[in-house]
Amino acid sequence: MFFLRCYWKHPEFRVGVADILPTVPGMAAWGMMTGVAMVKSGMSVFEASAMTLLVYAGSSQLAAIPLIAAAAPMSVILATGLCVNLRFVVFSAHLRPYFQHLPRGPRWLTGYLIADLNYVTFVQRFPVPGESAAQRQAQQAYLAGNCGITWVSWMLASGLGIALAQVIPTRWGLGFAGILALVAVLCSLLSSRLRSVSAVVAAAVAILAYGLPLRLNILVAITAAVACCMALEQWPVPAGKERP
Amino acid sequence: MNGTDAWTLLTILGLAALTVLTRCFFFLFDQPWTLAPWVQRGLVYAPMAALSAVVLPEVLTVQGHAISHWQDARPWAAALGVAYYFWRRGVMGTIVVGMAVYLPLHIGLGW
């Protein structure tokens, strides 16, 4: 965890920071607009601050904001939040062997702090879970830097958005910078043919299944893309091509 | 000034619990078990799939319906951002170029 001093000196801490730093302008713009959206929807500054500090999940916050404003039943709001977050369940399956050695408290806290881009950059940097104590230490140090930067910049940006909600115009669409950050990281992952297939299939299915309620299209798209790639893995690899 | 109510705060606490529950789902408990090897292999493709599924509908559709006219700032901004990425390999530059295309089209021309 990023507030543990023992990780700050580790060389992987800096690598973790460097890997996520370029995405910060995009994520900060998105965080700021989330802060603005909360206050403009009618939430009090206290409620908006609590939501930022506790929920710490941009997409589920954005899905919940209009529902809270419309005084929807709590069950509907929570069901929506759950479905928007279902992709994290897939990530947690992937991350389990990396974290299972941790005691429960730190394990939950580490999991809680891993947003989409932290997960993506982490498994890109460490394709295999650590076996030795030194490897595990390195992976935790990487996450400390990586998640620490994301957390701090998201909180500062959201706080700014909450404070200046009446001044910052939503129609400028500054939050689009967050989408561009995700686009750039997506491009950085397209290192093999099957990975590209995964991206194309997921995008196509996510768009075709957009009509599904509660943003379940995301989960269906991930499942379809993974299944498609695994089926294609059975085919022989052309000479000179690498598997991911 | 907007008011604070207990019901909203309770909802926020519920959403926070869901963040923990979903992000930690498969390592909430201590019981030892391992994923089947084929599942682990498949999960290698999950990061790309998740990002793509989240991002591309935001760039190419309006609430899930394919963009029907070319006067939309988002696909242009994203396309030039991607072009920059493959030219220079910079994430930050992609954001800057994309926004440099997006903001004038969106604010200036109303796309």
What would you note in describing this structure?
The complex is a heterodimer of chains A (244) and B (111). Chain A is mostly helical and 244 residues long. Chain A has 2 domains: 5-189, no CATH class; 190-244, no CATH class. Chain A contains 13 helices and no strands. Chain A has helices at 5-8, 11-20, 24-40, 45-55, 58-69, 74-84, 86-99, 104-112, 116-125, 133-163, 176-189, 193-208, 217-233. In chain A, helix 3 (24-40) runs parallel beside helix 5 (58-69) and helix 3 (24-40) packs across helix 10 (133-163). The radius of gyration of chain A is 19 Å and the shape is globular. The relative contact order of chain A is 0.17. With 111 residues, chain B is mostly helical. Chain B has one domain. Chain B is 67% helix and 4% strand. Chain B has 5 helices and 2 strands; from the N terminus they run H-H-H-E-E-H-H. A two-stranded antiparallel sheet of chain B has the order 1-2. In chain B, helix 4 (73-88) runs antiparallel to helix 5 (91-108). Chain B is extended and about 55 Å long. Chain B starts with 5 loop residues before the first helix and ends with a helix.
**SSE run of chain A:** HHHHHHHHHHHHH
Shape of chain A: globular
**Shape descriptor of chain B:** extended
Helicity of chain A, in percent? over 70%
Reconstruct the topology from this structure.
The complex is a heterodimer of chains A (244) and B (111).
Chain A: H1 5-8, H2 11-20, H3 24-40, H4 45-55, H5 58-69, H6 74-84, H7 86-99, H8 104-112, H9 116-125, H10 133-163, H11 176-189, H12 193-208, H13 217-233
Chain B: H1 6-23, H2 37-43, H3 46-60, E1 61-62, E2 65-66, H4 73-88, H5 91-108
Antiparallel strand pairs in B: 1-2
Helix pairs in contact in B: 4-5
In short:
Chain A has 244 residues and is mostly helical. Helices cover 72% and strands 0% of the residues of chain A.
Kindly list the characteristics that best describe this protein.
A: 244 residues, 13 helices, 72% helix, 0% strand, globular, B: two-stranded antiparallel ribbon, 2 strands, extended
